[in-house]
Amino acid sequence: MVIRKSPKEPVFTYTDFPCYVSAAFYVIKTKDVNIKYLTALLNSKLVKFWLDHKGKKQGNNFQVDDEPLSQIPLIKVSKEEQNPFVELVDKILSVKGKNPQTNTSELEAKIDRMVYKLYSLTDEEIKIIEENI
């Protein structure tokens, strides 16, 4: 997974091949959790909200490196519980692979709802996130 270190919007990009990137990017590798599950979580509105309020910023840009990333309260779940997230990421990757301009907001919203449920957020908490993203 790759992310720009100082983006205006945090967008975590899944990669399934070795790649070389400039120093302006941060590469995330892990064997502890399915990287597609991690991609789903990190691209969720909840994590964006967290980074905006608890992470570090450089002016209007997010600072995405070791420190803020390691502090994100990620929930570890079993492989079986990761599967629905992985399946949705696979669908998004498939659709975007055929046409990068395809609107996948419906699939992304489904991931957001699953993340809210995973973190046991209340309707009021969800409303705060949705209104501020």
Question: Looking across the biggest beta sheet, what order are the strands in?
Answer: 1-2
Shape: globular
Measured as a percent range, the helix fraction is 40-55%
Distance between the termini: 23 Å
Indicate how many domains the architecture comprises.
1
In total, the number of strands is 4
Structural class estimated from helices and strands: mainly alpha
As a whole number of angstroms, the C-alpha radius of gyration is 15 Å
Describe the protein.
The protein has 133 residues and is mainly alpha-helical. The chain has one domain. The protein has six helices and four strands; from the N terminus they run ββααββαααα. The protein has helices spanning 35-42, 45-54, 66-71, 79-98, 105-118, 123-132, and strands spanning 2-4, 25-27, 56-58, 61-63. A two-stranded antiparallel sheet has the order 1-2. The chain has a two-stranded antiparallel sheet with strand order 3-4. Strand 3 and strand 4 form a beta hairpin. Helix 1 (35-42) packs across helix 4. It is globular. The two termini are 23 Å apart. 20% of the residues are buried. The mean pLDDT is 91.
